[in-house]
TrEMBL record:
PANTHER family: PRC-BARREL DOMAIN PROTEIN, PRC-BARREL DOMAIN-CONTAINING PROTEIN
Name assigned to this protein: PRC-barrel domain-containing protein
Coiled-coil boundaries: none
InterPro entries: PRC-brl_dom, PRC_barrel-like_sf
Domain PRC-barrel: 2-67, 88-133
Pfam families: PRC
């Protein structure tokens, strides 16, 4: 498993040619299917060049590998679909249960780099508690709702928090 935040800044390379074709600047998540949807490769405001997760050959420790440069394209037409969220828009939100309990702040997610499946939330209780006790992990909820300010999860999720390994 890898953390989504570890993807930012990785070079994107074509295996057959050994050339770098970009750098990961954003990860877009499909919350409805609990997967990584695509990687965006530019920070320019008017550009949405990226590669769909299905077209990624391998995600290694130090680089994202593509079989062909042709799989890089404009993701803008696809990014307006419901349920797609750039990580910048959801990391930092409070995680609240449906009964009103604040579980913590969503700071990252773990995923399977082979499949793109989202596995767990990384939850913070604040800098001081994180430093003393470490962050917590929470399995990805079956049902969740993301608003402008919060991630709403079932009450049962508060019982599933565990120490970061």
């Amino acid at each position: 498993m890898r953390r989504i935040s570890e993807m930012i800044g990785l070079p994107v390379m074509v295996t057959g040619e050994g050339i770098q074709v970009g750098t990961v600047t954003e990860v877009v998540l499909d919350i409805d299917s609990a997967t990584v949807f695509c990687l965006l490769l530019t920070d320019e405001p008017d550009s949405s060049q990226g590669v769909p997760m299905a077209d990624i050959y391998r995600i290694g420790e130090d680089a994202v590998m593509l079989r062909d440069e042709k799989c890089i394209g404009d993701m803008a037409p696809l990014l307006n679909q419901a349920g797609l969220y750039p990580t910048r828009s959801i990391f930092g939100k409070d995680i609240i249960t449906e009964t009103g309990t604040n579980i913590g702040i969503l700071t990252d997610m773990q995923f399977d780099p082979a499949t793109g499946e989202l596995i767990r939330y990384v939850v913070s209780d604040g800098i001081l508690v994180d430093w003393i006790c470490g962050r917590k992990m929470m399995p990805l909820p079956v049902a969740q709702m993301i608003s402008d300010d919060t991630v709403l999860v079932p009450e049962s999720m508060s019982q599933l928090l565990q120490e970061d390994d």
